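Researcher: I've been going back and forth with a colleague about how TIM protein might be arranged in three dimensions. Neither of us has a model we trust, so I'd like an independent prediction. The organism is Agelaius phoeniceus, in case that matters for your notes. Sequence below.
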Amino acid sequence: GLWGALTAVSPQDWEQRQEEDTLLIERILLLVRNVLHVPPDPTEEQQGVDGDASVHDRVLWALHISGMDDLLKFLASAQVEQQWALHVLEIISLMFRDQSPEELAALGRGTAGAEHGEDTRELESLRQREMAEKRSRALQRTSRHSRFGGSYVLQGVKSIGDRDVVFHKGLHNLKSYSHDLGKEPRRLPRRRQPAP
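Model: Here is an independent structure prediction for TIM protein. You can compare it with whatever you and your colleague have in mind.
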C-alpha cells in the first residue's frame, strides 16, 4: 500500500510522481487518521478484564507491527514530504489521545531512572570485582629482583676512541661478546651472494 507507493519511486523521481500515487498516499493517511479518531466505547471497555489492552491500544499495536509508525516518522522528517505534515501531526496527536503529557513524562523518567540505576549497580559490581582481582594479583606477586643486571667496564677492550667498552648485559653473556653484539646483520642481495 502506502509503503510500497513510497519506496517504489526512486528519490530522483519525487517530482515525477504520478498523481494517482499522491492520491493513494493521502487516502491511506486519511484512513489511518479516521480509524484512530473513532472514540472509545465505554460499554465495551468495561466488559474487558483489567489489564486488557483497549481497542485503541490494539490499533496502535497493529500500526506498529505493520511498520506504519516508521513510515510516519519518515513522512514527518523527509524534506520533500512536507505536504503531509499536518496529516502526520494529526495522526500522532490521535495516537497519544488517551495519554496525558504528565503521565508520558513520568513514565519515561521512571524507565530511564530504573535502567540508569540498574546500569550503575552493574558497573559498581564490575568495578568491585576488578579491584578484588587486582588485590589478589598483587598478593600472588613474589618479590623478585629486576632484570637489570648492571653495567660493566671491560678493561683492555677499546671502544670508539680511547675509552674502555661499557657492557650492559649480564656477566653470563660476557663469553659471547663481540663488537657487533646487538647490531642487525647486513643482508647481501641475492645476486651478490656467493654461489653454493
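Researcher: What would you highlight for our discussion?
Model: I'd start with this: The two ends are 80 Å apart (CA to CA). After that, consider the following. Confidence is low (pLDDT under 50) at residues 8-12.
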